[in-house]
TrEMBL record, chain A:
Pfam families: CheX. Residues 46-131 form the Chemotaxis phosphatase CheX-like domain. Keywords: Chemotaxis. The keyword Transmembrane helix does not apply. The keyword NAD does not apply. InterPro entries: CheC-like_sf, CheX-like, CheX-like_dom. PANTHER family: CHEY-P PHOSPHATASE CHEX (PTHR39452). This is Chemotaxis protein CheX. It comes from Paractinoplanes atraurantiacus.
From TrEMBL, chain B:
This is Two-component system, chemotaxis family, response regulator CheY. It comes from the Bacteria. Residues 2-120 form the Response regulatory domain. It comes from Paractinoplanes atraurantiacus. One of its GO terms (biological process) is phosphorelay signal transduction system. InterPro entries: Bact_response_regulator, CheY-like_superfamily, Sig_transdc_resp-reg_receiver. SMART domains: REC. The modification 4-aspartylphosphate is found at residue 53. Pfam families: Response_reg. The keyword Phosphoprotein applies. Keywords: Phosphoprotein.
Length: 161, 128
């Protein structure tokens, strides 16, 4: 049985801030600036699924440029050295980190999947019978980045389509 | 000294390798618990430290810790879980299985160094 999740936008924003502070902007000079625009465009996205006490998905989406920049920051390399494999790896880890921290705020009994990465816009993502319930939307050095939570509307309905 | 970094994310392995290298560890890496055990079996000297992710394909971090603790040859290794699994019950499981410390992602370099200093693996104040 899935419960109503109590992770709100402030919680998500705090997790995102920790990710920036730890990996993407340790010097504190280039934070994610909120836009509050849940329809901002993306070119790539990654997700992890949570099942059990709560069922849904955590989605990290951004422009390719922002993903490349994130990979460069993680891997300590120049942006033009970042390969597609690097992009996928870092996008997956970002979804994994946020998803793991969301899971920790849920009632016991939740399981986290391994991340999935799609080098295509978030609008191509298909989460059947799910709705976006929360998100952090912003720009990082002028490029769109978002982290959103999608809750399944009912158990045993996912994958029915 | 040598440190083994075990994570299925290459990016996370890079970050951890950077940190331990700064602390004068020689870094070894593996993409999952099975690969790490296979690598350990080839080594004459056991690394002093392993930094271990939890959620990995093939063999997860908890299974790796359990395997290491069952092997007398590896008993001196200091095992630190580095993971997004941050529920109290998971931390207790890892410590009960034989992990010495637990670091929750995301972590800063300073926080990781402090943990290693608490374990006596780096001098106190290495972070400054």
């Amino acid at each position: 049985m899935s419960v109503e999740v109590e992770v709100n936008e402030n919680d998500l924003a705090e997790m995102v801030e920790q990710v920036w502070e730890s990996y993407l902007d340790p010097e504190g000079i280039s934070p994610l600036i909120p836009t509050y625009d849940e329809n901002q465009p993306s070119e790539v996205h990654s997700s992890v699924s949570i099942t059990g006490s709560w069922t849904g998905h955590i989605v990290y989406a951004s422009s390719t440029s922002a993903a490349r920049r994130a990979a460069a920051a993680f891997l300590a390399m120049e942006m033009d050295e970042v390969s597609e494999e690097d992009l996928s790896d870092v996008l997956g880890e970002l979804a994994n980190i946020v998803g793991g921290n969301v899971k920790a705020m849920l009632p016991p009994g939740a399981l986290l999947s391994l991340p999935q990465v799609v080098l295509a816009p978030e609008t191509t993502a298909r989460f059947p019978h799910s709705e976006r319930i929360s998100g952090v939307y912003g720009v990082w050095d002028g490029e769109p980045v978002s982290i959103s939570m999608w809750q399944s509307r009912g158990d045993n309905k996912e994958g029915a389509e | 000294m040598r440190a083994m970094v075990i994570d299925d994310s290459r990016a996370m392995r890079m970050i951890l390798k950077r940190i331990v290298s700064k602390l004068d560890f020689e870094a070894l890496e593996a993409g999952d618990g099975r690969e790490a055990l296979d690598l350990l079996a080839t080594l004459d000297e056991v690394p002093e430290l392993a930094l271990i992710d939890w959620n990995m394909p093939n063999m997860n971090g908890l299974e790796f810790v359990t395997n290491v603790r069952a092997d007398p040859r590896l008993r001196e290794m200091t095992l630190v879980m580095v993971t997004t699994e941050s529920e109290q019950s998971q931390i207790v499981r890892a410590l009960a299985a034989g992990a010495h410390e637990y670091v929750i992602k995301p972590f800063t370099e300073g926080a990781m160094i402090e943990k290693l200093a608490l374990l006596g693996l780096v001098p106190t104040g290495a972070n400054s």
